[in-house]
Amino acid sequence: SQKIEQNSEALNIQEGKTATLTCNYTNYSPAYLQWYRQDPGRGPVFLLLIRENEKEKRKERLKVTFDTTLKQSLFHITASQPADSATYLCALAPYSGGYNKLIFGAGTRLAVHP
Amino acid sequence: EAQVTQNPRYLITVTGKKLTVTCSQNMNHEYMSWYRQDPGLGLRQIYYSMNVEVTDKGDVPEGYKVSRKEKRNFPLILESPSPNQTSLYFCASSPYGGNRDNEQFFGPGTRLTVL
Question: What is the mean pLDDT of chain A?
Fold first, then answer.
């Protein structure tokens, strides 16, 4: 069956450390993968997109990697701050959906402690 | 301000009473979509629309209808709501669908409870 999985347990880290979140998928061939941030009671906010032929993407303190062999994306936040505390969602666009469908993981909650 | 708006934000209703959740975007986006979010299941796509008069089913379309008569509006219709449609609903829009960067802009959400 097709699955996209993120660690359901919250990730607790100390301020200033690097947070690494994982997104694994099975039985999908994604054209690209996206990461979103969601704060409680709010809609998700787009952060980064990485295509299947890209290994890494960066934006300020954020870095995303994409390994289509391992079927995995890693999302890193360097020099983390308490304001980075939120739930982070990964989403992929499978070729089979004509890139129009977006399949989301359930998200990982990140808590950055001072 | 560029945004996606949804109304109502909160709704409590009873089984079988038809309801409509409105969604509007002011960014001239071609692509719009509806999702529901349930604990442990993440966001699941209900319907999406590539442009005016073009709609298609997502992964969980049963019990829902949509229409896209104008580019800016994409209402979600529940003809006969049931308790299993109790959920948090999000509308989203994107400049384009298809093989392009498909960054989605989400609305604030509508929390629906069906008794």
Answer: 91
